[in-house]
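--- STAGE predict ---
source: upstream dedup step, 1 unique chain passed
mode: sequence only
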Amino acid sequence: MRDLMVSASPLFSPGPVPNTLRVPCLAERLCVARSEDQMIEALRAGGERALVLGQGSNVVLPERLDQPVVLAAWRGLKLRVRGDEALLTCAAGENWHGVVRHSLGQGWAGLENLALIPGSAGAAPIQNIGAYGVELSERVAEVRVFDRAEKRVRSLDGEACGFGYRDSLFKADPARYAVLSLTLRLARRLAMRLDYPDVGLELQRQGLTKPTPRQVAEAVIRIRRRKLPDPRHWGNAGSFFKNPIVDPGQAKRLAQSEPGLVAHPLAGGVKLAAAQLIDRCGWKGRRGGDVGVWHRQPLVLVNLGGAGGPDFLALGEQVRRSVRERFGVDLELEPSVLSRE
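--- STAGE serialize ---
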């Protein structure tokens, strides 16, 4: 009965699902939501099986999706200034890098290290995006969601969002929460995170000892463009693997058997650099069919032309197996993997 209701709804029609991997995926029932109200109406019509996506920047899709798909496509930015601090509210459909550029253009600091990350503002808290020593959770004031279980709009502060490393309450329970908007804390003067090696070296090359937030963002953009494939030419989802966290004992054993491994102590263990593990297994620049490991950053898998979602998963599993065999470390995939139903 629910499928008949969706099929009859004027909100839904067949269509291709956008995604940054550039793999073909057809949704039998697709709604492009142009407002919060339309999103909520579509989710009510689509039922609990309805899938919410933004720009498809962190997902691996099958060739076909049978469940209803709702795309968050509405835009809007609202800035509320409180002295030297501000709250920037972004509609779910806003482009994330556009949000960063807007905040910097208004003279506000806080998002500079997160420049040029692909995807939408609505997807950012789901993944708790992060780069160059900064995670989104450090800047989140509030996330407004439609709670599909309680059938109402809720506002959750940063603590209630359950943020973790590339994780959140929304990622843990995607069938329940649909992000409507994101509110970020910004400041005129903020202690910027400049201790990340790549960022420090890039600023040094530019002769910048006291950089502005905009200059830090420009440095991050240059680094990303040198290291990472341009999604306009090479379909990719950014990092395909998470940096693994191991217990201190395993980290110590690996340091003895694999000199030079990058290791960052954390409260719950030791974080290793997945890119280094993959590189030591000889994967940089290799390919498997129509999917390749990017030659400048082995965390990234790219579409060489004609690849589908299963092709990415197949090469990803080969990489994971080789890392497991050499280091005894299990790599987790960073993007969410969606099935047909």
